[in-house]
Amino acid sequence: MKAIYLTGFMGAGKTTIGEKLAEKLNLPVLDTDQEIIKKRNMSIKEIFEKYGETFFRQSETEILKELPTKDVIITTGGGIVITAENRNWMKTQGTVVLLHADLNIIYERVHYDSNRPLASKKTKEELIDLYQSRVTFYKDCSLEVDTSNKKIDEIVDEIISRLKE
Ligand SMILES: Nc1ncnc2c1ncn2[C@@H]1O[C@H](COP(=O)(O)OP(=O)(O)O)[C@@H](O)[C@H]1O
Ligand SMILES: O=C(O)C1=C[C@@H](OP(=O)(O)O)[C@@H](O)[C@H](O)C1
Ligand SMILES: [Mg+2]
């Protein structure tokens, strides 16, 4: 089976849902952020502070291409789609599943989170602007699942059944 890439804005639930999806499909799961942390031996916050977003994006592309592309769930960072090379890689190598949640819910989940440097300290309007700047990239996917007000198990079951369609 080709890799399943979970994409979507920060806080949509990619990391959390990916773990449950992998459990249910009996597949391994890898998270691009976690792999960057391991490779650089630094937190995402530290990478942004010390080396900036450009360096983080380079690491993200490197990692994406190093990860397996068969029989695996890959949960991505919310900004992976801004790089054309990443979008092409995911489309060619696997199935891209977009998770979307209402932006009010997303804001409540991420605006206080200092481990998400591109969300912390942003107003709701700024966060929505960032989302809008990416929305066409997110929509370039095989399947879109709205996660708002749904339980994790419900979302996982929906992904599995819609992947079979
Ligand atoms: N369907 C959901 N219902 C309630 N809380 C959720 C749901 N999905 C994710 N969360 C919570 O939202 C936060 C962000 O989830 P996370 O998986 O880190 O998102 P992402 O990887 O897309 O940034 C976490 O605290 C997680 O527990
Ligand atoms: O949207 C983004 O640009 C980012 C999303 C984060 O991942 P999550 O989407 O898992 O929060 C992480 O990769 C980094 O903080 C940048
Ligand atoms: Mg995540």
UniProtKB/TrEMBL annotation:
Its EC number is 2.7.1.71. InterPro entries: P-loop_NTPase, Shikimate/glucono_kinase, Shikimate_kinase/TSH1. GO terms for cellular component: cytosol. Pathway: Metabolic intermediate biosynthesis; chorismate biosynthesis; chorismate from D-erythrose 4-phosphate and phosphoenolpyruvate: step 5/7. Its cofactor is Mg(2+). One of its GO terms (biological process) is chorismate biosynthetic process. This is Shikimate kinase. It comes from Metabacillus sediminilitoris. The lineage of its organism: Bacteria, Bacillati, Bacillota, Bacilli, Bacillales.
